[in-house]
Amino acid sequence: MRQDVQDRESWAGRLLGPMHPRLRSGQAGKESGCLVKSREFTGIGSWSTGSLLLEDLIPAALDCLTSIDEALGKAWAQKVEACREASGDGDERIDYFDCADTDIGSELYEELCAVIDGRLPAYLYWGSTDGDGADIGVWVSHDSIADDRRSGELPSGDQLPDEADAVADGITQFLHVSDHGNMELYAIVDGANGKVWRSVWGCV
pTM of the prediction? Predict the structure, then answer.
């Protein structure tokens, strides 16, 4: 097992219990109907299902944040633990995730959601699906994509433009759409020999 995974299991186990199965198996995205390949972001899909309890949502959100930025995820896990300790009476901690008479957990989760949203790639969001309010995870914002395709802000098509032409036209991202409707977002990045397209995320 890689050292970074061992370290993540160690701190996650101490603070929150077992690491989310997505982080253990590397299978993020398979449950969502989105077949995600080796891309910049591979966390599309469900991270918590069947529950809207903060004791379930906060650990799932922390795991998602860790998959995006491990150092920030660790810092937030420590912040969560500090809030739990501060909510206790002396040496006896109160699990405020279950506590209906405090807003600490709700405020913490809302802030955590905003942090995740601010670090997700373009056109992805953290929240529930349209059809299931208790299916929480990272999803594609189809409405935002449709709006930006209509306005021309998000160029799209079934073939990537030449990198040099894209740079000359000021295009920094492109949505590849197959004839089956599969989507893959690309961004222009610096390569060894100039600008190249890099896959950001993909969804089948």
Answer: 0.75
From CA 196, how far away is CA 192, in angstroms rounded?
9
Phi then psi for residue 179, to 5 deg, are -70, -10
Contact call for residues 134 and 55 (beta carbons, < 8 A)? no
| Co-location of 83 and 169 in the same domain | no
Domain boundary among 108, 140, 172: 140
- The helix (H) or strand (E) run that includes residue 148 is helix 142-151
Q: Are 91 and 128 within one domain?
A: yes
Q: How far apart are CA 51 and CA 137, in angstroms?
A: 12
Residues 39-94: tens digit of each pLDDT: 678 889 999 999 888 888 999 999 999 999 999 999 999 988 887 766 655 444 45
Number of structural domains in the chain: 2
186 and 168 in a single domain? The answer is yes
Task: Evaluate whether 173 touches 161 at the Cβ level (below 8 Å).
Answer: no
Q: Report the first-to-last Cα separation within the chain, whole angstroms.
A: 30
13, pLDDT greater than 50: no
63 and 133 inside one domain: yes
| Structure-token pair, residue 148 | 């930006």
| DSSP string for 95-125 | -GGG-TT-SHHHHHHHHHHHHHHHHSPTTEE
Residue 58 lies in domain: 3-32+41-140
